[in-house]
Structures are given as C-alpha cells and as structure tokens.
Amino acid sequence: MRATFWTLAALMSHWRRRPGNFMTLLAGLAIATALWSGVQALNAQARNSYDAATAAISGGGGRMLLAARGGLFEQDLFVKLRRAGVEVSPVLEGASRIGDKNIRIVGVEPVSLPRRSPIAHMRKRADILDDFLTGEGRAFASPQTLRRLDLAEGAQPQTERGRRLPPLTALAEAPPGAIVVDIGVAQRLLDRPGKLSRLILADDAALDEARLKRVAGDALRLVAADDDSELARLTDSFHLNLTAFGFLAFLVGLFIVHAAYGLAFEQRLPTLRTLRALGVAAPNLVAAMACEIAAFTFVAGGAGLIGGYAIAQALLPNVARSLESLYGAQISESLTLDARWGLSGLVMAGAGAVLAAASGFAKTMRLPPLSVARPIAWRAAHHRYLRRQAAFATIALVAAICAYDFGKGLASGFAVIGFSLLAAALFLPVALAGFLALSENLAHRPLARWFFADGRQEISGLSLALMALLVALAANIGVGGMVEGFRQTFTRWLDARLVAEVYFEAATPADARDIEAWARGQPDISAILPVWRAKTRIDGWPIEIVGMTAHETYSAHFPLIEATPDVWTALHAQDAVLVSEQLARRLGVGLGSALDIPTSRRDWRARVVGIFPDYGNPKGQLRVDHEELKRYFDDASGVHYGLRVSPDATARFIDNMQRRFDGAIARILDQSELKSMSTEIFERTFAVTAALNTLTLIVSGVALFASLLTLSDMRQARIAPVWALGATRRELAALEMIRVVAFAAGAAILATPLGLFMTWCLVAIVNVAAFGWRLPFQMFPTQWLMVFLIALCAAILAALIPVARLARAAPTELLKVFSNER
Amino acid sequence: MNADRPTGSRERLGAAMSRRSALILALSSTSALAQGFGGLGANAPGFKFPQPGTPLVFPKDHGAHPDFRTEWWYVTANLKGTDGASYGVQWTLFRFALEPNSARAGWTDRNVWMAHAAATDAGEHLFAQKFARGGIGLAGVEAAPFRAYIDDWLLETRDDSSGAGIERLRVSAGNGNFAYALDLTATGPIVLQGEGGYSRKSDAGQASYYYSEPFFMTEGSVSIHGRETQVSGRAWMDREWSSQALAADQQGWDWFALHLDGGVKLMLYRMRSVKAAPFFFGNWIDADGATSPLMRDDIAIAPLENMHIADRDTPVRWRVQIKSRGVDVETRPLNPRSWMATEPAYWEGPIFFSGSHKGEGYLEMTGY
User: For tag attachment on chain B, is the N or C end more exposed, with fewer CB atoms within 10 Å?
Assistant: First the structure.
C-alpha cells in the first residue's frame, strides 16, 4: 500500500513537469466524455418527452386499445366494451393549430382514467374536476406549453377550425405540447363527433384477445402502452444516427487520450525503470497507474459531463425543432438529466481512459527491471509497431467486410463505417512509413535523407493524432457528401412533386365542398386536384393513403423511381397502387406485386404499378386513384387540395379565397411557401449531424495540436545533432513545418477515398435502413478541396507554436541536449 | 303501500333519510370525486327541491330524476348458501348531477354515475367500484320496465316479469375476483318513508324523497374467487333523491337495516356529530309494511368491541336496544373486515344479531 502510494507520488510528479501533456490528457478525456454524454443527454431528453407524452395520459405501463387499422374508431366500441364489463377509459387525440403554432389536442375522460394516469390526479382536487366537467370546461396545458403559445391562463384562443377552446388552465401534469380537454370538448374541437383514438385499460382490467374479438370484432387491437409510443418508433433511427455520431466523436476524443497517455508513458519510461530498479513490483506500478487513471476519470469525466450538458443545451433547440418538424414530436426544451446519465458518462470516461491506457499498462507489466534506455533500438521497435498496425488494420478491414456481408440494417451500416475508418486509420502510419522509406531511398542529399528518416521515427508519436485527423476528415467528406447529395436530390424532387401553385386544407369536408364548388367557377383555375387522405396500417406500420386524380400535373411531373410503362393509365383503371420507396422496401414488394390493403370494408388487393421516392416521410405512403380511395375508405379526410392556377394570378387568387372563406380554410400555402417549409425541414434533419461533424473536426485539430506540442520537447534531442552539424534553426523549423503539413496532406489524401466510401455507406446502407429511401451517390470535388485545405490549415495552426519555438530556440538550449543525453 | 306516520320530529326523520347522501360527504377530504360530484356542501340553485304533498308516482319514480342533484339505488342481501355458509352482497348506484338541467345529449350530459358492489363471506370481503359519465349509454336508470345499469352491473326487471314495478328484479355485479347474480322477488309492499315519501331533514325546509322495498326474497348465486355457490335469503332496497346536503358538523354514522325473524324490518342509525351528542333515529316496519318512527329516547346503540381495520379502530360488535319494543340484541359481523376501500371508504357488511330477537341484516359505518 505504502509502496503504491509513493509510486503514485513519483508518477504524478511527471505531470507537474509536463503541464502541457497533463492538460492534453485531461482535455482529451473531457472532450470525449462531453461529446458522448451530450448526445446521450439529447437522446434521453427526447425519449423522456415521448414517454411523458404517453404516460401523462395513460400513466406508465399498462395496456391500451387502438384501431386495428390505425386512425380513429367509433365511440360505440367503447360503450360496447364497457357494457361488457371491460374497464377502459377513452382518449381522443388530434393535431390542431392555434395561430401559427402546432398543438396536440388530447381529450380525456377524467372519471374513468386509471389511477396511474397523472391526469387522473385531478380527481383529488374537487375544484379542478368540477371546473373541468361543468360549464364550458377547462383546457389544461403545462406552463411550458402556455409559454410556447404565448397565452395566459384563462385565455380562450380559437383553433384553425374556428372552434373556441375552454379557458386555458395551467396544469403541471399536462403533457408537453398538448392541451388536455374533456373528451366531449375534444370531439368538438377536432370535429370528430363520436370518434376516439384509443382506450386505456384500467390497471386490473381483464382482457385477452379472445374476449376483445368477441366484443369488438376485429376493429381494435390490444397493445402494451409502452409500444404505443409511435413517436419512439418513428424517431428510433434519428436517435441511432445521433448516437453513432456521438460515438464517433467519442472515439476521436479517445485518440487524443491515447496519444497523450502514450506520450506520457514514453516520457516516464526512465522513471518507471528507476522505480522498478528500486524494487517496486510491476503490479504495484500498475496499481498506481490505475489509481492515476481513476483520478483522471473523475476529474476529466466530471468536466466532460459539464461540457456534455452545455453541448446538449446548445443543440437541444435545434434537435427539438427537427423532431417537431419531422415527426410532430414535442420535446421539452428545458434539459432535465438524471443521475443515471451522469453515471453512464463517467463509466464511458473510465472505459475510454482504461482503453487508451491499456497498452501502457501491458508494457509496464512486461517492463524488464534492469534494462537501460536504448534510443537506437527504435528502429526494431518501429518495425514491430508498424507490423502490429498493419495486422490490426487487416483485422478491422475483415470485420468491415463481415459486417457488410452478414449484417443487416442500421447497426451493420454503422459497423461497416466504423471498422473501415478504423482500418484506414490503423493503416495510415504504415502507409506514411512506407512512403517515407521509399523517399529516403530516393533522396541523395544528407539533410533530405535525415528529413525522411527522422519523419519515420516521428510517425509513432504523431500517428494517433494523424489517425484522429484522418477519421475526422473522412467523416467530414462522407457526411458532407451525403448531405449535399441529399440536398440536391431533395430539391429536384420537391420541384417535381410540388407542381400545383396553391395548396389548401379546408376546415371541414363540408367547407371543402363549398370551396371546390366556388373554385370551379374561377377563371384563373385550370385544375382542382383533391388530395384526399386515409390512414391504415400494414404489418403494424402506419400508412397514409393519398388519392390522385388523372391529370397532367401528375403524369408529366410526379417523380417515380420505377414504374410500369402504362403506369398512369393503370393507376386510374382499377386496383392499382403506387408505393413509396420506403414502404416498398419494408414490405418487400416491387413492380407487379400484389398488395393487400386493409380498408374500411375489407382487404383491398391492388397491384403495384409504380414506386415513388418520398423523402423525409417517416410513414409509409400509398397513392391510389381518387375514386377508389373514396370507395374503399369511408373515413377518408376530404380536406386537402392542390390547385393549378395561372402563376401570375396566384397571389391575387389566394387573397380572394382567404377573404371569401376565411374560417373555412384551415391552411393555405402557395408553392414557394410549401417548398421553403419542406426545405427547412430538410435542413433541420441534418443540422445536428453537421454540428457534431464540425465538433469532431475541431477535436481532431486539438488532437494534432496537442501531439505536436508534447512532441516538440522530445524533438530537441533529435534536432540538436543536426543543428550541431550545421543546419540552421530556420532551415530546421521550415523542415518541421513541411513534415507536419505533409503528414496532414497525406491524411487528407487518404481521407478522400475513405470519405467517399463513407458517403456510399451512408447513402446505400444507413439511410436505407434508417429512413427507407436511397439517394443517388454523388461526388462533390469542391468539398474534397475544402476538406484538404482545412486539414492543411489545421496542421499549420497546430505546428505553428512548436515550430516557432524551435526557430527561436536559444543555441544554449540545443547544446544542453548533449550535456544530459540519456 | 304504507307511508310512515307523520312525526313530531321532522328534523330527525329528515336526517335519517339522507344517510346515503351523507355517505358521499363522509371522508370527502380524501376524494374529490365524492366531494366534487354534486358538491353537496354548497347551495344548489337551479336544481329542483322536494315539495311536501307531492305524491310519488310509480313506475315513473323508480327512474332517474335528473332535475335533482343526487340520487341512489341501494340493494343489500343476507344470504345462505347451499354449502351452509352465510353470504352478503351489496349493490349501489349513485347519480350526481354536476349542474342543473343535467340530462343532455352525449358528452355534454352533466351526470356522473358511481357504483359500489361487494360480496362477503366469513373469510372474504371483495368489492369493486365503477364510475361512468352519463349521456353515452354507459350508465343510467329507466323507470319502466325498470332498469338500472352501469357497465355490466345491472339491477333490472326480470325477463319473465310482466309488471311495470320493481316486484321482480335481477341484480348482478362483479369483477375478476367475485360475482353475483340474484333474483329478487318482493313479498311485501313498497314502504314510503317520511310523509308519503317526502322526508324532511330540518325545519328550514331541507328534505328528500325516499322509499324502500325491504321485503325482497332472493335466490341466485355468489362466486368468490371463482368458487360459485347457490344462495337464497332476504334483500332490502332503498331509493332516495334530493338536492340538499346534511349538516357540516356530521362526522359519520352507524346504520342498521335489520330483518327480524317473524317478518318485522327495523331501520336504525346513530349519527355522530363533532359538536353535539350522537343523534339516534329508527323506523319499525311491520310485516305488512306499516311503519312507526322510533324516537331518539327509545333507541340505544353502543359499540361493544373495536377492531383495527384499514388503519383505524372500527366497532364491530354492537348492543342495540329499542325500549318500547323490548328489543335488546347484540350484533356480530359475518366478516369484521367488511371494509369498502372505495372513494369514499367505509365499512359495510352483513351482520347477525341475537338476544331478545334473532335475525340478520346490514351494518354501515362511516367516518371512523
């Protein structure tokens, strides 16, 4: 114990002498932890919000009943179940708008809500309950939601359908982004009389599939309440994406830690040898080092957690908006974190630290007590090092190939990316060493030969930083390429998809009929395109069914990935359907396949005549003939329309229409507004990805800088002899700079194909698994040039201080090297 | 049908009539459902009030009275199984109007219905509770043919019954643990309480409408934890509706509904007040339905033994005396743990008594 303590004290003295090294190590670990735990905090926040949204109404756990086909079901089913003795409580949910803010209306029935439901707590407050159920009722909203709506308690805003809400009342238990009203009020506000969206089973309600079928036929399906969170399912891939990038950033951070610790280890070798020679046993030494690592973990991990919190705080608004615009998910924007999050962050920090220090530990265990320093032996060691790197690179490559061949889905996509990045990173020093060895053989001037030979020796010290740079650059090229490719594809697709000049949503189907009748008589209008919608569910997946009329707008423009030659004739003939790309993939259907679609009446068997891209839609979509939609779906909502208006008359037309119909129009947009909205959604999809990507690049720059800074001390011993032989300091400094820049350039050059491969993986594996659509693979050389320049700048910036220091080093400094050479 | 005789102590009589509505007030601090639904402590402008001299009209008055604030249908039964064991069941449906003019269409209906059901034997006391909103067909009461329902719990005219009254009913309730289904057949007349069914609560004019059918013979089955037993015995039904509350100082009460061997029915209670001495009242119902009110000096009710149930001391054995009738009996519960952990919670279960008279009945205790 005592021995371990004094050993620890001796080891720790190193950090006092090398504060730079110390700071790098701490910073690396802190940054790695910060990026990882920041991403985790975002994910946890989002998941908590989804759970809160579900649990606020139904309480945690339990079971519920949903319409078998998705969407709404008749209230009669609820009455039937209750009269059969099944204790259920009805809920109606729907989207609405107050002003320009989206809001979820949630109708509950407080008298029958199970006790586990937080909303049911109102039963304990006679005044609240009385208000809720009498007079015009109450509309509960969390204080946060009230703030978001910029409304005070007691306000009675109107929805987009022109319905007045009951007086708003703050209730902490109300789910974020929702307004809770009585079930009857919800039916009125949402214009869904006699309809419900789910039934919550009481805690001890006995209901099995057989009994459900007896009472309600096939109309309802029984699900665990936790499964209900459709949001959680839809957003899964979004969060996996975040996690993957968080992990990537963490790995880059670990490169720094590994570099810093490796350096410290090299520098402490003499101390370690001395300690061993003094009789300290290897296990004691390792124990002391472990204590040291534990201390680092706590200090740096703690700092990392603070940083992670800050990162999450900074990115949260963006993530929240992405999730809202993409999935309609409301994320609470006040970050709440629990102890579990902190603990997991520290565990990651500890695991990372141990991983980064593992090789040091192993070497210490094997350290012969009496061996002396053998600086000249570096060549042998270097060869061993390179061979090991090459071996590991090969293993990583094999793993990448295996992941590609045998894996499936998102995880395998990320595994392929991860392993190939690792393989390339491990291979980098080997490639650089090979290149330097070759150059050394070709060089004739002594200084040049020294330059290359010295470069080879320096590789092992710099290699981790270079690897980090390589990974970051490749990720930058890869993600940048994917995002840019998506942007271009998406824009083209939007242009083709949004052809109508005006889009509107009527408040009710009756309003829609009025507007339609009026529009028919308008001279500026060349076509009225109803875009009616219905909902169903195939294999449990929510699906929208959209009706299309036979019109040039579609046949000439609607983008299709593949289609039968007579696609448009076939679609409007009979029993034909267009399937969105992601749905086709999920169901495994192609052109000519038959698809059984659950409808209001029976299953409808239709033939797939085309597959269309539907970027950014988390749900599956089917496009069918307008008349067939009406025939098969009684509950098709007939409120969405597109209008072909002569372009120069659009603004005037919208004006006219708004004046004339006002409350009958829930929403009206012209083409450009809709496009800009869609583009905004797109931008947000990858905003966080891009932010993390940039952070990763910054971290790798820090890694490079840290490595160079700590190496510069060691460099003096190598440069002093060359200086003594007559090379000037300025010359040497220039050579130093050239070498660093060359290394970075090498990494950047290797990063380009690697980044392209990553783009391909993202486009062909990850996106397909995450979203269901595949983008065309595109290349963007200007991006590569940018990344190359960034790499060079990073290298120059990182090398600036050590090189300047060398250029201005006093000759006495360099002479000292000879006085105490070991 | 016999009405009880006019009484010189209207105030006392009135209090007795409202035992059930007071139940809702009892322990109301723990339950907004009970307190809020009906808000019985407050004034009730807009609701109808009982008027003296209004004759009760059957079958119409078996049904719901949505112009009044609160109303209930209450059945208790003392049963003997073919297995020789004793059983008891309770079936209660309450209606609370949240606002005047409560009968409206769909979800805008302002009635909330609450029901309690229990089945008791010597070892088990199983109960359940239901709540339902009016207006959408979950719960309600129709006068003729008589039908009271909430979810799958029913009190209704039997299929084979031709009459439009409540002479032949079927009552059923249960949950996963217990269930019962009993046929009720009236062997005596409906008993109008108070002045022809108008029962005063105070000289200030507070009152309720109140009638009972204490003469049901019953048979059917009771199932406890899946073990079903054929049973037969006697049952008692109470009906009351009003728009007013009891005094604020009432703490709780002990209420007895007793079937005396020989056909006499006896209703008794002790109302406990935080301020004043306990208040007693009773009603002696002859086998032919003729009623005689029992004045406070005539009645003595005293607990003999307490038991710790649901974290409180509850009397489980009582001495009951009616001096003028020579009644001096001791009661004991079939199951001392007949605790209804509902909203609100109270003790209600079958009892036996012996002494000067023998028989069985139901005991309800609140406010402990």
Answer: N
